[in-house]
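Why predict the complex rather than its parts? Because the way molecules touch one another can change local conformation, and only a joint prediction can capture that. The input here totals 946 residues.
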Amino acid sequence: MTSGAPPANVNAAGLTRDVYKGLPSTLCAGCGHNSITNHLIKALYEYGVEPHKLAKMSGIGCSSKTPAYFVERAHGFNGVHGRMPSLATGAKIANRELMVLGISGDGDTASIGLGQYCHMIRRNVDCTYIIEDNGCYGLTKGQFSATADRGSVLKKGQVNELETIDVCGLAIELGATFVARSFSGDGKQLIPLLQAAFSHRGTAVLDIISPCVTFNDHEGSTKSYAYVKEHHAILHTPDYIVGGREITVDYEPGTVKEVQFDDGSRILLRKLEIEYDPADRVGALTVLNQARDRGEFVTGLLYVDTQARDLCEREKLPKKPLAQLAEDDLRISREDWKSLMESFA
Amino acid sequence: MQVNDLTIRAATVNGSGSQSANLVLTNAIFRLGIPVAPKNVFPSNIEGLPTWFDVRVSPQGYQCRSSSIDMLIALNPATWHADVLAVKSGGAILYEETFAVTGATKRDDVTYYPVPFAKLAKENVADAALRKYLTNMIYVGALAELLGISEESIEAALRAQFRRKLKAVDTNMEAVRLGANYAREHLPKNDPYTLEAMPGHNDGLMLIEGNSAAALGCVMAGCTVAAWYPITPSSSLCESFIAYCDRYRVDKATGERKVAVLQAEDELAAIGMVFGATWAGARAMTSTSGPGLSLMAEFAGLGYYAELPGVIFDVQRAGPSTGLPTRTMQGDVAFAYTLSHGDTKHIVLLPATPIEAYEFGSQAFDLADRFQTPVFVLSDLDLGMNLWMTKPLPYPEQGFDRGKVLSAQELEAAGSWGRYRDVDSDGIAYRTLPGTEHANAGFFTRGSGHDETARYSEDPNVYRNNLDRLWRKFDTARSAVPEPIAEETGTACGLIAYGTTHHAIVEAREQLRAAGVETGYLRIRALPLNSDVLAFIERHERVYVVEQNRDGQLYGILRTELPASAIEKLRSIRHYNGVPIDASAIFEPLLESERTELVPA
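Output of the joint prediction:
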């Protein structure tokens, strides 16, 4: 090794990949969530996140346990069921320098937490919001969740007769500024999407289909590994390019859509069979609805708007985090206080 | 003659603009140096339902409500009958002359002052839109003439009310003169009431609502995040906070705001945002009332168990459920104290005055940081939404107490560190904030069982030790929260009260003294209970716990926490009809009880 050159096994933050690991997972062997955790470790390592600036937030459920399984050094907050968006909102507004990463599940997001999910999106809180989506409740032993598809069958034979809530379609309806869907088994697609989500300023929603091996991986389930692999319609192949870095791969002209984020980084979306424009909100909803009718999952960057203002910007917060302001910044001066008191007399 | 000692009641229709007239009247009397205590008894309604505004004037400066109505201004036909009957014998009634004085409303023990309010307004106010509002100023003028309130003090009050809107002052003043002239020409004085200026008496005093005072407490405590869901009677607390921040926290050059106020989708989200913000190191608050507090129960438990600071203002209203949204009650004390499931216990502050609303409103942030726990400030509608005479709110002389927060340097020096380790034997562990640049800074905050290093644990001993430490921390808080205030002279009979009940106690004790019953008095200002409470009870033979709820909630807490020897001395006096407690609600039952107790067996 030449002296002066950065060691090959560290990232831009000067840290090894081990720093991005967490405690051993206590989830079932083969759980899709474990794959997502591994992809997250890689994505965060490559992205060069400084652990002390990372705030890992979650609600309650299998998915919400996973923040303990990566970047152990970072602060984590496992809150209450369905209420992570409010905690994430408060944390971001208090310290805008934090990179807020929320991990939720389908029950946590689409049932008990649906209200907070909607309002976080409306506020465009700058955070990455991951839904580890298996269509069922694991910790309480396999009941349907609100993302279960109509007609999907539980292990013991019950059929879901309720319409599914499409958390991606809903997010787009609500004005979300970054919406993607992926599959826990497709790291090649998921990792660039995660990194793009980290770069996006605003709420970045990532719905990741993540099969539950114990309660929802059987014949008749539409969230089983077998079903998802068969009905997985990939919109495009994404590549994430760190800000300032040159593109080293040659793309055929007209085959790539490029989205640039505030931090200078880009995501390149390589076209597959269909023409897809992630800036087209109505088009995104149409594709989602058509896929649903066909019983398919479309994955990729469904919608992105890099121009919208996020919460901190809209609130005109100073660059210095609110959490770091002191008496002199915050108290009314003695002089102003005196005249204020006089105004009450 | 009855000088400076009466209660005036304006009975009007909600939405008719009488509020400004009543405030001008209050302010004009205050400007004469005469002590005032206004009480707004209003409906949960935008327009049309009856509303009452009582202005109490007393030489002693009593701030509690009086149930004895001396002068009635009657402008609401819907309540005319009941309003007339509420006036005390010898009182006076200034009323719209078209109201029928017949049957029960025709009394021979009161003076009637008929005024053609509607006609006067119609003939003299060209603008139909303004007519309704200015009718109210006509009664202010007529009343001023009858009671002897000078035109100058009315005009000064109008100027204070309308600030720079000079035209509004003139228009309103015309209506005031119209009323005054009418009274001078048509209403020969035939009642005993008069107001005489008390020059200098109110110098150095001001009028403020408890909610504004509490909002100023938040500003001076350095609260930077407020998350709220609108609810009566707490909305004006957050709205005042917004107004003060707009004035004092905005950089005029850049427009940057050193505060974030978020109107949440519900109270669950509001308190969630508070805990997210305090976890990340900001000072944060939410304000609510009973129904919102119910929704916050889940997060309150997380705040207690995961040890997150946070300030929750509960401006209490009459429950249960939706209850009476615009009426007052001390109905959330027991609920707030143990809000959430499991063995949850909270610090609860009980302000009685605007100064305490301000000081506790500020101190709550220090206590929340110091004890790393939610702190509840239980005000009520009476304190929060009525104007109170007070000395100016004092400028804080202390800096913020942010409690035990480890910086990167301190972490480095400390070596090993555990988020929930009781290093100082006071139950309070050290915390770190996200963003602290040190490899050991991070930990995992959770509402599930955890050990000293914040790792998940279901171990029976670990769980129990943690609960015991939390109790130890709560015990430490006893001597840190605002201490009770005692006034005692070795009497057998004692009184315990808290919050706004205090003001009725002050008057009731005078009445009791006049009736030959001397009392000691202890005002509790916070939970957990301080040892002074037991000592006070031990020094008395009988102690009456006075509060504004049906179930005697503080009485219940005392009975749970104090030894049997103290419990047997306790008696309970409760007031719960939604309007603020008055002295008679204490004087009468207490006197009766004392007479029974003192009858030899």
